[in-house]
Amino acid sequence: MNKKPLKPATTRGIFFWNMSGSVCNAANTVLMTLIITRICGADTAGIYSLALAIAQVIGSVAYFEVRNFQVSDTQHEYTFSEYHLFRLLTFSAAACFTIVWTLWKGYTGEKLQTVFLCCLFQMIEAYEDVFQGLLQINDRLDLAGKSFTFRIISDTLLFWILLAVTKNFLLSLLAYTAYAGAWIFLVTIPWSGRFEKPHRTSLKNIPHLAYACLPIFLTNFLMSYILSAPKYALDEFYPSKMQTYFNILFMPAAVVNLFTFILYRIYITQMAKDWNSGNQKGFIRQILYLLGWIALVGAGTLTVGWLVGVPFLSWFYGLPKLLDYRRELIVILIGGVFAAAAGWFNVVLTIIRHQKIQLVVNGMAAAACYFSVKPLVNRFGLMGASFSYLISMAILFFLQVILMAYFVRQGREQ
Questions:
Q1: What is the pLDDT of residue 1?
Q2: pTM
Q3: How far apart are CA 65 and CA 140, in angstroms?
Q4: Which of 145, 181, 361, 377 is 20 to 30 A off residue 13, Cα-Cα?
Q5: What DSSP element (H or E) covers 284?
């Protein structure tokens, strides 16, 4: 039986569904935290926030930051089956890492189960990501965004209804995770199969692919550590509800990062073509275009954050204590602007295949975070966690500005 032909992609459709998926992904964290806080309380929400921070690091192992490399592989250096096989290997590595992490930390009870389920959810999304990359490289980012959007919306509703009815957080989280896994096999994989299906392939090129992506992975792993380190420090020195406060204050900073993510997903493949064809003018114009938008959105977010940010968050989550943390919010928002620009430079350096230098830069920022985060958090609490994030992101940004100027100038001379 012949399958119904896919409708042609449109620029408007690609933009809409990519933006929709990205917005839903960001809103998901906000809504999940809201639902858990309102129904289960700040302590359970704090455990969930810590589990998300751990899952972010575990997820970096599962993703291995292959997506940007995959969708910028316009010269087809590797086959989709090789990308798929490599993702299965990184999925397995992430599972082993999860076991080692939980044993090392000695988690038990609700915290252990929450961490395990959140890490498993991240691994499931990482497996889906390789199929979304196949859709994107075939100029069907609209299909990837559509699948992602419907999954996030329906899965979040499922979690909300179950938690409201049963008041059982772990049962609801288990159903949430299982639903995501089922969706991949019922929707995402069949859609991507219209273009190509994975088949058995040799391991011959896998070490080369791993080596090519290793600097990007280590860079992202270090970035995940920088983002999560303040939460680990808070977990060491303060009760679980402090995790909830910090996680809520951190959410507005995701606005700038979300906007950057939406735009660069659209332009990354074209920028790779511009760079490979020697179109330096078009390549640089798109870099500056996005940086301008980051600055604009960042300024708007800071203004809104200063005027109404804390009162709104306090009302939205039903936590009056948040009213005491207005300065912390502004520090985090400034760090978020630096983080968005640094994340964009990471993508650009990957496009021009200078991803190895990212490792050095992120290593320096991670070192600054490692040596500063515990003393700052221990002495200044949430303000210390906020400043640790800002310092690390500022160091990362300014080092990348210097590197980008050097490499782009070098490319012009060639």
A1: 42
A2: 0.77
A3: 20
A4: 181
A5: helix 280-304
